[in-house]
Amino acid sequence: MSKVLVSDPIDKAGIDILSQVATVDVKTGLKPAELQEIIGEYDALMIRSGTRVTQEIIEAGTQLKIIGRAGVGVDNVDVAAATRKGIVVVNSPEGNTIAAAEHALAMMLSLSRHIPDANASVKKGEWDRKTFVGAEVYKKTLGIVGLGKIGSHVANVAKAMGMKLLAYDPFISRERAEQIGCQLVELDLLFQQADYITLHIPKTPETANLINAKTLAKMKPNARIINCARGGIIDEAALATAVKEGTIAGAALDVFASEPLGESELRSLGKEIILTPHLGASTAEAQVNVAIDVAEQIRDVLLGLPARSA
Ligand code: NAD
Ligand code: MLT
After folding, report:
1. Cα–Cα distance for residue pair 175/181, rounded to 1 Å
2. Is the CB–ligand 2 distance for residue 148 below 6 Å?
3. 77: Cβ below 6 Å to ligand 1?
4. ipTM
5. Of the candidates 241, 154, 243, 237, the residue with the CA atom closest to the CA atom of residue 201
6. What backbone phi and psi angles, to 5 degrees, belong to 2?
7. pTM
8. Residues that are catalytic
9. Is the distance from the beta carbon of residue 281 to the nearest atom of ligand 2 less than 6 Å?
10. 115 CA distance to ligand 2 centroid (A)?
11. Hey, how many other C-beta atoms are within 10 angstroms of the C-beta on 56?
12. Labelling 95: which of 112, 201, 286, 295 has CA 20 to 30 A away?
């Protein structure tokens, strides 16, 4: 019987599918060396964002036929190394679209109304209504960087809240953007005009540190930025400086250059900054969707059926 290693928390719905065709070992929190030591026993590896599948892991995975990422981004997998060894890499491109979009929207509203800090204050026994005066999103301009699946859903909801929409995405047409209700603009203009900016792009060599001190300097002093896409797209040190010096009004981050987030100036900032521990896809619904989607693809490959590549 085939053997599957599940090295990040995956919904039971996915484990049940895999168990029909394979022996499934769930071993989360493995150190890279521990994973490298045991991966040679397995025909398939199923992960979320917690496991980094490096070239070394792939080289050690002598039996591996497939790596399944229960989510969208495969940036934690060395896809080139896997492909060289004939290992298929699959993902779930749509299973967590709504969850991630809703998290970005929740971050935008939480930032605007200081909900996390106001909640913490009431729970401490305070009743401070002055500190937490917020801002409305109605009639404000939202700049969406990356108008793919998540960016488009954010656009639809933001439009219903009365926001004006700008988008930057070099790979989509003006017509497509207009269909979604967005005016397609260059990145600089988006940064100059938006009151809120939300990122929905993959992490690639082109998007690493796309948002840096220079880009942040273009933002309006009342503008806020949200990153529920990938860590490393925003230069965190430059962002902390911009928030601390008040050159921008705030930021909400779900993803970080290094996860879990270690020592960071971001942690020391006040209500202008909201940090969540990579929760974009963490809804019950999305976790069932991605687990089933990827487990079915792994099952099919283990049964010798063709796979859909990420
Ligand atoms: P998608 O492929 O549907 O959309 C991405 C869009 O980004 C595309 O339209 C593409 O044209 C555009 N793009 C690519 N490079 C760009 C660039 N340099 N500048 C501007 N636009 C660019 O993907 P999606 O499903 O919308 O996901 C977007 C991102 O969100 C992914 O990176 C994914 O990893 C991340 N994500 C995070 C979470 C989370 O838990 N926080 C959950 C799901 C997805
Ligand atoms: C993704 O790219 O789908 C997300 O990072 C989801 C996850 O947390 O696994």
Report:
1. 10
2. no
3. no
4. 0.98
5. 154
6. -65, 160
7. 0.96
8. 230, 259, 278
9. yes
10. 24
11. 16
12. 112
